[in-house]
């Protein structure tokens, strides 16, 4: 787990990249009805905007309240690391699914022009995305990103304040 703001920033970039890329491919595959090179191309083309949108929401809006809820209701600083990781991950994924499902609905409406369908697209995207995002975060992305992060940045190598 990140130990300071700089580590949190780097960790968030890596996690957002992983989750948004996977979920972009998943959603484009659902929309197109099959996985192909065209699906991958479409997912990759939409990825940069989705990544920026997700990162901004994650960093500035979702992260603080999600961690606050996790530590207020579900875990304490003395809880095991695994329990804290799972709890914070769940508290982050759920609101991010709502936010990113809205993004997907907006993207679909921009492409189709069917703005009257935005609410129904958003609401139908939420359960489709939660059943993929939560297990992927807990089983694949979380452990993978934590391992990559700590391999690239061993504990104590990312300082809070620059040394002068």
From TrEMBL:
Superkingdom: Bacteria
Native source organism of the sequence: Clostridium segne
Coiled coil location: none
Keyword Plastid in record: no
Keywords for this protein: Membrane, Transmembrane, Transmembrane helix
Pfam families: DUF2798
Protein's UniProt name: DUF2798 domain-containing protein
Transmembrane segments: 9-25, 45-64, 85-106, 126-145
